[in-house]
Design brief:
Blueprint lengths: L6 E6 L9 E2 L2 H6 L2 E2 L6 H9 L5 E6 L7 E5 L11 E5 L2 E2 L3 E6 L10 H10 L2 E2 L6 E7 L12 E8 L6 E6 L3 E8 L2 E6 L5 E6 L10 E4 L4 E6 L5 E8 L8 E3 L2 H7 L4 H7 L15
Antiparallel strand pairs: 1-4, 2-7, 3-6, 4-8, 5-6, 9-10, 10-11, 11-18, 12-17, 12-19, 13-16, 13-18, 14-15, 14-17
Amino acid sequence: MTKHNAIFILFCGDEITPNKPVYAPPSLSAEGYIHACTAEQVKDVYQHFYASLDDVKVAVVDPRLIHAQLIFEAPSEPLGSHALFPHIYGKLNTDAIVDVVEYPLFAHREVSSTLLDVLAHYRFLRLPVEGTLYKSTWRAKTELHDNKPIGTAMIGMYCHALKSVSCFHRLTHEEIWHFYQGDAFNLYLLYPDGHVETVVMGPDFKQGQQLQYRIPAGVWQAGELSERGQYAIFGCTMAPGFTGDCFEAADHQALKIDYPEVADICDRLAVNHHQTKMPSGFAS
């Protein structure tokens, strides 16, 4: 890695939260620094210290945003074949954390400075159930008779390095997808009549890529970045607006029975851990 690539901190539960301006774990007072690691070191750190624990997460840290001193040095005791680990000598300002991903979804890839720039600018959150990087940008103040907004909009990002995809899901009303920036991405659509469609969203109209696409209500949809891409920024607009109760994630094992031709895609994008509903009250 280069000194400008991301470094990572493993933790459990809500030990790191956005509403805390700094992160100061016990190691800071006990050893004088916060333990961090590079992408290639995450697996060994997990297996050595966290494998028996629940709800392990990985904080993605932009080293250029850290206020404290960052030093790469040998650990106090050998760990695998790694010679130098990043140590943060001081409290970590949490605005240097640009993403938090569940450990099972961590891709063990380097996160480049280019991708860190995008993450630091947009400050995405992780969508419940799907884990997609997203940011709500508009929620109409005007509401329908059932107190739901007449429209909503969001931006999101797919990337391989941080495993941001959309699992198969369907909505109770239409959704408009927009391509904004970056590399092309695929939308996989499974229609009730058994028809399967792949839509490539991107800027190259000569190759049949789409800048905008409407997905009908009730169609199973999923998405991911193109194989060789680094990231794609997209948008979704809905009218009536999105609320948690309009969403249903798929049972991907059952979906493979009905649509066997996309079994490999179902396996790859089944990141919802068998959850099918958004948390109660989400986006309500």
